[in-house]
Amino acid sequence: MSELTPQRPTAALLPRRRRLLVLGICCLSLLIVSLDNTALNVALPSMRRELDASVSGLQWTIDAYTLVLASLLMLSGSTADRIGRRRVFTTGLVLFVLGSLLCSLAPSLEALVACRMVQAVGGSMLNPVAMSIITNTFTEPAERARAIGVWGAVVGISLAAGPLVGGLLVGSVGWRAIFWVNLPIGLAALLLTLRYVPESRAPRPRRPDPVGQVLVALLLGSLTYAIIEAGPLFAGVAAAALAGILVYEPRRREPLIDLRFFRSAPFSGATVTAVGAFAALGGFLFLNTLYLQDVRGLSALHAGLFMLPMAAMTFVFAPMSGRLVGTRGPRPSLLLSGAAMAAGSLLFAAFDAETSTPLLFTGYVVFGIGFGMVNAPITNTAVSGMPRAQAGVAAAVASTSRQTGQTLGVAVAGAVLSAGLASSPYAAATGDLDGFVAASRPAYWIITACGLCVLVAGALTSGAWARGTAERTAARLAEEEEEEEGGGVQATARASSP
After folding, report:
1. 228 with 60: CB under 8 angstroms?
2. Could you give the C-alpha distances from 492 to 61, 469, 480, 485, 497, in angstroms and in order?
3. Are 331 and 458 in contact (CB under 8 A)?
4. What is the distance of C-alpha 480 from the center of its chain?
5. Which residues contact 449 (CB under 8 A, 6 or more apart)?
6. DSSP assignment letter at 99
7. 3-state class (DSSP) for residue 84
8. What CATH number should be reported for the domain holding residue 325?
9. Residue 121, number of CB atoms within 10 A of its CB
10. What is the C-alpha to C-alpha distance for residues 368 and 344, in angstroms, rounded to an integer?
11. What are the angstrom distances between the C-alpha of 5 and each of 2, 139, 169, 263, 313?
12. Cα(490)–Cα(75) distance, rounded to whole angstroms?
């Protein structure tokens, strides 16, 4: 921890009411980051008409944000440990508010995508840093588990409420209002942070890893471009970047991505679960937004109301999952989540839920239950068993996995849909239900597979054997860090001796 002024107590010494206030401030920042992207989904048809955008252009308005966010999350987390968590957190809030303002004024699709990237740079400084603040504020294990449960619940609630909030704003004011909402909330979070959140630093902050950062950004960016634009050259670049990470990162003393974490089965399972669940969500929202407005001809407001059953189920089951994780562990939530997400998607893939309103609503309800259950166990599983000093890094990897999954989900669903539409006489303006259902069916099978991936990963990485790997990994990490510290002390002593 850094030295703090007497007027600002350290996080570990805060009274309970102050700790809860810090949790609320962190959740407020999470709310705007998560809500922004899913709310924007409902605005896609309006943006396409006003900005004359293609399907791939719409994909980039979503993926440019999540791509930059995923690329910078771990860098932001390690920087915060080094120079101060509150300092980076407040900088992130300023950049996010500024980016939101610029997005609301964007005159073209290209300008909007660029402003979304500015917004994402600020967003990358919020989620992992907020989690690091939480883990250092709630030091007692049971209390920390409950706080993380609240955090996971806010992720689920904000993501599910996005379509409804976006529909209300687009239907009443216009798509630019989605970004205006971030301004007062972000400014309020900024003022509360300056007043109530104490500054803190890691005892041993991680060194910068510029090569690792470039490799991660290159991997995610080239892979996304290859999927959206069908560029085989970029697929090769992505493969080369992945090989570079696997070769280079283990050789660094303090890598950007500590591959030793993956010795823990629960941590590996949390990563797979996050990618699978958020890929399913990203693809599901993207397809349904276009279906409800382009095929059914609904307004943005009515499209948001149509998806209210999914939002309501996530709103109910997200906090329930947080409490369940705190009392029974992550396994029940993971199993229920994977089964429900797969079943909800299967109604669209195998039974053409779009053709029947009762079946459509059933799919929304079941999918919403599944997504509501998944967030709390992801975060809890990622940080549980890790040394406290590594909790922020582990949480950053989990957040990166979420954003990577959502990026890939939108990219894959959009690419599959575009290919299906190109091979059929369908045109969005015609409202051809049969054509859209046929074109989107392969994408729903992929989303169903993502749900099954969550189910299998949860079953395999949440039992007694998996917990044993987490305990051994934590002990090995602590032992290796002690050895490194001892070696550093000896080297310093040798250098200072005559």
Report:
1. yes
2. 51, 34, 18, 11, 9
3. yes
4. 30
5. none
6. H
7. coil
8. 1.20.1250.20
9. 19
10. 8
11. 10, 21, 43, 40, 45
12. 29
Alpha helices in 230-294 (DSSP H): 232-248, 265-290
In a domain, 494, yes or no: no
Nearest to 41 by CA among 240, 199, 178, 233: 178
- State both tokens at 353: 């839920």
Residue 262 tokens read as 């993956």
Residue spans of alpha helices (H) in 125-231? 127-137, 141-172, 177-180, 182-196, 210-229
User: Which residue segment(s) compose the domain that 400 sits in?
Assistant: 12-209+252-487
User: Which two three-digit tokens encode residue 342?
Assistant: 């797969």
What is the identity of the amino acid at 440? Answer: S
CB neighbourhood size of 424 (10 A): 14
Lookup: tokens for 326:
């705190």
Of the CA atoms within 13 Å of residue 373, those in its CB half-sphere come to 24
460, 269 Cβ separation under 8 angstroms: yes
Instruction: Name the one residue in this structure whose structure tokens are 């091979």.
Output: 423
Tokens of 108: 């073209």
Tell me, yes or no, whether 322 lies in a domain.
yes
- Is residue 4 a part of any domain in this protein? no
Element (H, E) at 29: helix 16-42
* Contact between 376 and 153 (Cβ < 8 Å): yes
In a domain, 247, yes or no: no
Query: 233: which 2 tokens?
Result: 């050259």
The pLDDT tens digits along the chain (498 residues) read: 333 333 444 555 678 888 889 999 998 888 888 888 778 888 888 888 898 888 888 889 988 898 898 888 888 888 888 888 899 999 999 999 999 999 999 999 999 999 999 999 999 898 778 877 887 888 777 787 778 778 767 766 776 678 888 888 988 889 999 999 899 999 999 999 999 988 888 777 777 888 998 999 899 889 888 888 877 888 899 999 999 999 998 888 888 888 888 888 888 999 999 999 999 999 999 999 889 988 888 888 888 888 889 888 888 888 888 788 878 888 999 999 999 999 999 999 999 999 999 999 999 999 999 998 998 888 778 776 666 666 667 777 888 888 889 889 999 998 999 888 877 654 444 457 888 899 999 999 999 999 999 999 999 988 888 888 888 887 887 777 666 655 544 544 444 455
* Residue 483: φ, ψ to 5°: -65, -40
Residue in 348, 333, 367, 314 with CA at minimum distance from that of residue 35? 314
335/318 Cα distance (integer angstroms):
14
Structurally, how many domains does the chain consist of?
A: 1
Residue keyed to tokens 């429900």: 340
> How is residue 385 annotated by DSSP?
T
Give the residue carrying structure tokens 């932001």: 76
